[in-house]
Amino acid sequence: MKKETSRRHFIRNLSVSASLLTALPLAHSQTSENDKRRKITLDKDDTILFQGDSITYWHRKLDSKAVNDSQSIGSGYALLTASRLLYQHPEKNLKIYNRGISGNTVPDLEKRWDEDCLAIKPDVLSILIGVNDYTVKKRDNKGSAQLYREGYDRLLERTKSAFPDIKLIIAEPFVIKGLLYVDESWFPGFNDYRQVAKELAEKYHAAFIPLHSLFEKALERAPADYWSGDGLHASMAGAQLMSDAWLKAFN
Amino acid sequence: MKKETSRRHFIRNLSVSASLLTALPLAHSQTSENDKRRKITLDKDDTILFQGDSITYWHRKLDSKAVNDSQSIGSGYALLTASRLLYQHPEKNLKIYNRGISGNTVPDLEKRWDEDCLAIKPDVLSILIGVNDYTVKKRDNKGSAQLYREGYDRLLERTKSAFPDIKLIIAEPFVIKGLLYVDESWFPGFNDYRQVAKELAEKYHAAFIPLHSLFEKALERAPADYWSGDGLHASMAGAQLMSDAWLKAFN
Description:
The structure is a homodimer.
Chain A: H1 3-28, H2 33-36, E1 47-52, H3 54-57, H4 70-73, H5 77-88, E2 95-98, H6 106-116, E3 124-128, H7 131-140, H8 145-162, E4 167-171, H9 189-203, E5 207-209, H10 211-218, H11 224-227, H12 236-247
């Protein structure tokens, strides 16, 4: 084949490829665990709210309520995810907020839910909560996986009652073993909290982000201290891992 | 075609598509201006330094010198770029720093270059500087594009003398017209500064990031205030645009 012909042939194939690209996620969903998971479709004018504890908070400016603002969103996975979504979808007029607060448990979220969730009227609500519920149980012997389940269930029920069409994202609480705060004594106790989040995601038809499993898998690529400083909070590389997992939850 | 046959046909096409995907960047490089640009190859143990003004600084913690740390890197394009590089290359043991400072011009960089660049011994040095050099000229009638060129040239010469193998990234100074600080009176004066950066990138074999051109093109996708609040500083969407351009400078 002459060079020009070869190039033309390539370009023709390319347009076939482009149409297949659109179809790829569907094809993958037959085999990949990741793509079998429920996905979120973003609509025009959607408001997206990130909720959780310090991992979500990550140094956001607590007194700022500005929309689509890096200082209000902090510098963790919420920023990485929001920046990508805003860049990708200028036509959607998305409004993105972060209301994560350090140390929060499910009971903490329940107390501030009217102001810090319902008042914002989110169309997409993302929640990462649970590691502090387990810490409180482990350290102070207060709470239990059962109380975590009941509280989290109430929170979601309340949200669904207020906004029946809300699109939910529920993330699996995670830790990274072998670092400052996390040793073997966390297991199997912590697994109950992971299981609760997974079951509630199923119950409420939420997109589920399997963070603990993803970080376990990431240990094949780099040691624990590459992904987290203390076992609880993600490093920059860890935040990018999280953000990529979030982005996969969107169509 | 029956459903099963159709599916098989689809899957067969899919494997063709996968091999085309690998070939895509190469094919693009024949035509795309973007991929013709010089690229940076990251090596094991590389230290990467982001230098510049407020756009690079973007709310980093000035008293922290920690490596690969989101608070030390801020929440702008440097964070987005560093997080992605760290996630992508765990095996490379990259060390990433940000030393951008608000309001800086080339003369400011020259003053603090020993401490804030040479002492860090970067293998990869990224510089975005120039918009304040132009502001000083426009507002206070101090400096000129010629002085910007001479100072920037000295800075690069000094860096190359200290580290002959350094890999350089030079970004085009940019503004977004029609917002708070930037009106038509900026042009054509500001273009001289863009041109200087481009020519110095060529002279020093640097990867060049054509930010101003990219933001001009982005106006086809969304209005000016989607990409910047004031015409000088990028929004979250704008920071992602910048970061994607930076990432394209790496092999």
